[in-house]
Design brief:
single chain, 4 helices
Length: about 140
C-alpha cells in the first residue's frame, strides 16, 4: 500500500508542477508571439476547465502526502529536528503552508474583493514547487 501511495504522490507532483510550469513558461512565450487578447482568451478557456482537474490533483497530492507522513513516528514538534529527514520534512511542510497561504490570499482578492490577482502569475508557486522537490529528495539523501 505504501508503494501505491508513493506512486500516486509522485504522479500528482509531476502533474502539478507541469501545470504550473506550463502556465509560467509556455504562456510567457506565447504572449511574445501572439496577441494579448488571443492569449487571454485561450488562458481563460483552459483555466476554467482545468480548475477541477488541478484542484483534484492538488487535493490528492496533499492526501497522499499526509498518508505517507503517517508512516513516520512523530510524537512532538521537536521530533522534526531529531534527524536530517525531519528537518527537510519540516522545511517542505513550511513551503507547502506558504503556497497554501498565497493561494488563499490570491483567491480572496479574486473572489471576495473582485480585484485582479495580486500575484498575477504562478512564478512564486513554481519556485516553491522546485524547492519542495529539492527538500523531498534531500529527505531521502541526507
Amino acid at each position: 500500500m505504501h508503494f501505491i501511495f508513493i506512486c500516486i504522490h509522485l504522479i500528482c507532483a509531476v502533474f502539478f508542477i507541469a501545470y504550473v510550469f506550463f502556465d509560467v513558461c509556455v504562456y510567457h512565450f506565447a504572449y511574445k508571439y501572439q496577441s494579448k487578447e488571443d492569449c487571454d482568451k485561450i488562458k481563460k478557456a483552459y483555466t476554467k476547465s482545468s480548475i477541477f482537474i488541478f484542484a483534484g490533483i492538488f487535493i490528492l497530492l496533499l492526501l497522499s502526502g499526509f498518508y505517507l507522513l503517517s508512516f513516520y513516528e512523530i510524537n512532538s514538534f521537536w521530533d522534526f529536528f531529531a534527524s536530517n529527514f525531519g528537518i527537510f520534512l519540516f522545511i517542505k511542510l513550511l513551503l507547502l503552508i506558504t503556497m497554501l497561504v498565497l493561494t488563499f490570499y490570491s483567491l480572496f482578492f479574486i473572489k471576495v474583493l473582485k480585484r485582479k490577482d495580486p500575484l498575477k502569475s504562478h512564478l512564486i508557486a513554481l519556485i516553491l514547487c522546485i524547492l519542495i522537490v529539492i527538500c523531498a529528495k534531500a529527505m531521502l539523501y541526507f
